[in-house]
Design brief:
The chain is built from 10 helices and 10 strands. By secondary structure, it is of the alpha+beta class.
Length: about 450
Amino acid sequence: MPQSKKRPPNHPRGSSKAILSRFHVAPSPLAAIFTVMVIAVMFALGAFIMFEYRSLQVQSHGRVGSAYIDNLLAPLALDHFEILGHTNRNSNQAFSYVAQKNPNLVMRVWTLEGALLYSTLQDDTADHHEAEHLKVAMQGEFVVNLETSGTIDPEFPLAYPYFEVYAPIHDPENGMLIAVGEIYLDASELLRDRSFVERATWAAVILAALSMLAMLALTFSQSSRLEELLAAERKMVKHNDQLRRAANRARLDAAQANEQVLNVVGAELHDGPIQLLGLVSLMKDQHPQTEMPDGTSVRGLISQVMTELRSISAGLILPELEDLDTSSVVALAVERHKALMFGDVEMEIVEPLANLDLPRKICLYRVVCEGLSNAVRHGQGRVPLVTVHQKGSVLDTVICGGKSQGAKTTSSITPWHLGLQGMRRRLDAFGGRIELAIAESSATLHVTLPIQSPDDKP
């Protein structure tokens, strides 16, 4: 049994398979570069957001710790230190009360000279601090650090992670810097919030990156489809150009075939009727009446017919034009006309002239012959003038003769009408034109023949 051809699946217009079939991205270096750029930019954006968020989070907790130190320790320092730098029992009790209410709070108070005034830690010494951070706080700025790992002192009540804040203590009445406070706060809740925010931020960044990549893929898909359509259009244009060239070659071949037919017809006329009439003219006249009533003899009529048929056949048979240049083709047409019509013709050829191909040589030859025949037939005895020159890529041929008595305009019914139509059809095959200008005492036939048409170019 014959095998049936497989047809492509017919998907509904709105189905996912139909959408995927229309979505096509051809791999290209440009698409890969843009994909890498989008991923890199989105990753950098996410990292920048995370860095800024962490910095702002730490700084905000540092400001909170600084305000806590300044508001809590300033009154205690002013109320329970008789002379700053000398503690008494009441101040120790007050600070102990604060430590009892906040068991995880580690707090120190420093003088502006760097001496330790008070600490919630037992047996605390002045060595347990960051000297650089303390110097910054003594200049009126707060310092905050987030510690996530390290060695923990067994007597230290906080575990990692925690905040370490150094902040100045000011006198509430006059705002003078009187001491430096140091506190340690638990940062586990902050890290949990940070982890949640970072996950949400990265999810948003990844979603945005995927959306941008999808839009990028859609853009490249449309670009790929447009390139395919453009390639198909170019292929179609190339195919149409080939068809146009083929049609032009066929038209030229038809013109050559027409000339061959004319040659065959001319040969048949010469070898057929003309030969028979020649035999008849050689036969003896057996009729007693040798002359017709108007004085014309049969032999004379036969001779006239033979002359006309010879002229027709000679005009149909095309001479050898393939090896002639353009000026020689024009000269041959003029000489052939002079030999057939027994009349003079003036000729003016402006050199140089481009060499024509054989179909254009045939067209030029026929046009000159037909133009000269019409000029002599309807020119009232005026000697025709043939002028040939070249303007750029166009060959101009002008044939001047006398004006026919019945000629008025180019479109009127004149004795030249049939000849003009024949020449126009020949010139149309090459994109040429023909114009007939009628003056008071002369008629000018202007013929333009392109040397090479656009379809003939490789």
